[in-house]
Structures are given as structure tokens and as C-alpha cells.
């Protein structure tokens, strides 16, 4: 399953017209009230709501995420390094609304060693995640191998290698056990290094699945 990451308000109508049925809504980048966003979404469209730090303060981020859950978000993504108070409050609200909790770890510099990756993955579950997401910068084929090896471990997960060398992880993930993979709406709309477009991934999967 392909989840299209929306970072700009102008992308939303175009992506929905393309037939995408699963969206990541980057509330920190869209900068619209959740009611405005969700009012445009057909009922069948699944969503991940995300609000990364640095744009809004913690209270406003929590308001945006809670409001999105109230409006029917399928998943809410919360950073592993969040404070206990912040993460626990969102986890409790997610439980009340029937929203699945993604606990995520990002490293834009490097891929940690295998033992640390396994610990990070376990920490995502221990902090309440229904699904763990690991996204790290890849510098070698060995890094890719370390990431893909995480699929042998139990638990629902999405493991992403960022950067050009990490692109294969975005393609392979769903075949190894990833719950989904992320794509950009189109060229120039990437929200992470190495992200392929929705059309590119659909074309790749069409070739693989028809072979």
C-alpha cells in the first residue's frame, strides 16, 4: 500500500484526483486547520496525521493532532523522543478515538548499528506504538541490509532508508512485511530524501506484480 505524503495545501486536490486512497497529512507543513483538510477527504481515504516539531509549539501540535483524530484520522504519528506527557496524552486520545498510534524514529545523518536499530524498534513498541516507523539516512548497501533485516523481528512496522541508496527500501518494504510505503505527490514534492513519486512507485509495482 502506498501512502502519499502531503506537505502543501495545493497538492491535496491533485492527489485525490489521481486515485490515491492513503495520505500522510503533514500538518506542520500544510498549515491549515484540520477541519479544512478533512472536509475535502472522501470517506474511503485513510490518513496518517503528522505534526513534526519546530513549526508549532507542543500545545498547538497536540491540538492539531487531537482535532485530526476527532475527525477520523486512521493513524497518528508521534516521535519516539517525545516527552512522556506529550506521547501519553496523544496515545490516550488515539485509544479513545480508535486511531492507531505510530511511534517513529528519524535520523537524517546515518544508519545506526544493528543492535541500536533493534533497540529503537523495541522502544517504539514499548512506548505504546501499534506500529513502529524507522527512517534513517543510508550511506551504503550494508546500511540497506541492516534495515531490511529488521523485518525478521515481530511487530507491525515501516522501515525506510533515506537518500538515493535507500530508495530500494521504499520499493522492497511492502514485499518484506511493511504495512505501507511512502511516496511524494510528484517531482519536487518530496518530504524526505530519496522519496519516489506516487506514479513512479505504481509503475514499479505494476511491473513487479505482472511478472
Short characterization:
The protein has helices spanning 11-17, 27-30, 34-38, 58-70, 84-97, 114-126, 141-148, 167-176, 198-210; strands at 2-6, 22-26, 46-50, 75-79, 100-107, 131-137, 157-162, 181-183.
Task: From the structure above, extract its key features.
211 residues, alpha/beta, 8-stranded parallel beta sheet, 8 strands, 41% helix, globular
Question: What's the topology here?
Answer:
Blueprint: E1 2-6, H1 11-17, E2 22-26, H2 27-30, H3 34-38, E3 46-50, H4 58-70, E4 75-79, H5 84-97, E5 100-107, H6 114-126, E6 131-137, H7 141-148, E7 157-162, H8 167-176, E8 181-183, H9 198-210
Helix pairs in contact: 4-5
Amino acid at each position: 500500500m502506498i501512502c502519499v505524503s502531503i506537505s502543501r495545501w495545493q497538492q491535496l486536490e491533485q492527489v485525490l484526483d489521481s486515485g490515491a486512497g492513503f495520505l500522510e497529512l503533514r500538518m506542520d507543513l500544510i498549515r491549515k486547520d484540520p477541519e479544512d483538510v478533512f472536509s475535502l477527504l472522501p470517506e474511503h481515504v485513510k490518513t496518517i496525521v503528522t505534526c513534526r516539531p519546530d513549526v508549532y509549539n507542543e500545545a498547538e501540535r497536540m491540538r492539531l493532532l487531537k482535532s485530526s483524530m476527532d475527525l477520523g484520522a486512521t493513524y497518528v504519528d508521534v516521535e519516539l523522543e517525545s516527552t512522556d506527557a506529550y506521547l501519553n496524552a496523544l496515545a490516550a486520545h488515539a485509544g479513545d478515538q480508535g486511531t492507531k498510534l505510530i511511534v517513529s524514529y528519524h535520523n537524517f545523518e546515518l544508519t545506526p548499528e544493528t543492535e541500536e536499530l533493534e533497540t529503537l524498534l523495541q522502544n517504539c513498541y514499548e512506548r505504546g506504538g501499534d506500529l513502529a516507523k524507522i527512517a534513517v539516512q543510508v550511506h551504503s548497501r550494508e546500511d540497506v541490509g541492516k534495515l531490511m533485516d529488521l523485518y525478521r523481528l515481530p511487530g507491525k512496522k515501516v522501515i525506510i532508508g533515506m537518500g538515493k541508496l535507500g530508495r530500494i527500501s521504499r520499493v522492497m518494504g511492502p514485499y518484506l512485511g511493511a504495512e505501507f510505503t511512502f511516496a511524494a505527490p510528484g517531482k519536487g514534492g518530496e518530504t524526505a530524501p530519496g522519496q519516489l513519486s506516487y506514479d513512479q512507485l505504481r509503475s514499479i509495482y505494476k511491473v513487479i506484480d505482472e511478472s
